[in-house]
Automatic annotation (TrEMBL):
Name of this protein: orotate phosphoribosyltransferase
Pathways involved: Pyrimidine metabolism; UMP biosynthesis via de novo pathway; UMP from orotate: step 1/2
UniProt entry tagged with the keyword Transmembrane: no
Database matches in Gene3D superfamilies: 1.20.1050.10, 3.40.50.2020, Glutaredoxin (3.40.30.10)
InterPro entries membership: Glutathione-S-Trfase_C-like, Glutathione-S-Trfase_C_sf, Glutathione_S-Trfase, Glutathione_S-Trfase_N, OPRT, PRTase-like, PRTase_dom, Thioredoxin-like_sf
Every GST N-terminal domain range: 214-294
Amino acid sequence: MSAAADAARTTANILLEIEAVLFRPDAPFTFTSGRKSPVYVDCRKIISFPRARAKLMDLAVERIAASVGYESLDVIAGGETAGIPFAAWIAERLGLPMVYVRKKPKGFGRNAQIEGTFPEGARALLVEDLATDGGSKLGFIEALRGAGAEAAHSFVVFHYGIFPEGIARLEAEGVSLHALCTWYDALAAAEAAGYLSGQGLAEVKAFLDDPDGWQEIVFYTNPQSRGRIVRWMLEEVEAPYRAEYLTYGPALQTPEFLAVNPMGKLPAIRHGGTVVTETVAICSYLADAFPERGLAPPPPARGAYYRWLFFSAGPFDAAITARAAGFEPPEAVRGMIGYGSLERVLDTLERQLSAAPYLAGTDFTTADLCAGAQLVFGQHIEVIAPRPVFTDYLDRLAARPAFRRAAALDEAAQAAMDQQGETREQPA
Ligand SMILES: O=P(O)(O)OC[C@H]1O[C@H](OP(=O)(O)OP(=O)(O)O)[C@H](O)[C@@H]1O
């Protein structure tokens, strides 16, 4: 094993041991940007483990000597903030001066972006804890060069290794990136130590191979299904998604689709490593996954919200489909039928909508989306007769741009499927 490969394995094992790298394919992390990831790294933790950090810094100076040279550097520059302690330890080991670079000039006083000093033409090594796509490195390098340094090298403990275009950009700027390990090393160490196997391992590999593709929402639907409700929700949250249209019949019974929904039913979504089925569950999941859209009240205020969400998934859906199927529960068994009767369901809904503009109060929520879509469907198939309160309510819902976008997309999808002669019939 080469020294670099050996160092990569040791680094990965240390980072696993101190829980600086975490793998959670079953419950992906959500970053501030809303991006999802089954992996997470926090190199800042290293500073709190003296033995681990000493070993990593020993490996760092060996790596720097091998990649940059023994006498090829004049100053070590730490990038604000996480890079600063690592730069200090490396400078100490190499017996070199140190400076640190702010992300932006201070804005007053000397307006310094670099703290510390070096002579014109000093050969600087930029040190940071980690590199994702290398974007921050460019800013630090520019500052170093602006202050007269030659800056052709950057060192990090951990490099994601999954954004090649970022590294190409650094190289184009004349900067070589040196790292002790990447996600691929961490993954190999996690696999060897038994942290990951089977589906979890496959999930992490899929993410590392295509991080953007992995987190795109895949929407399995047919425009004739309850997928229309989910489509509306997807348009409300405005997250990127890719629709996969499936015809009824064998396409829903393939092993691939049954792995998504063992019921062989539509709709379903996959978001990162998370698969969600059941229309209202999908809508609730999306409301929580994209909280900035304000489609669910805060948890302490969710009483009415949950009531009407579950009302739409349970009694309302069952009452409409039973009536549409020609099934009327006999009087004697109504007590054991969750919804009692369609009339009772509709009267309850009407009372609520006479008291407030939306089901959970003054604001539109995912409960309105789910119940409103059922109401639209029930009226469309003439199982529900229009009532003035319902008409006003549906006018409010139909005025939403997401509602209109979703309807147009599903109409277009239906037309395309019709043109291809794909079945419109739902199986028995
Ligand atoms: O953009 P890249 O070059 O790929 O590197 C990622 C940067 O993100 C982190 O710092 P962050 O911006 O969170 O700032 P901090 O160190 O001050 O917390 C990390 O320490 C790197 O500087």
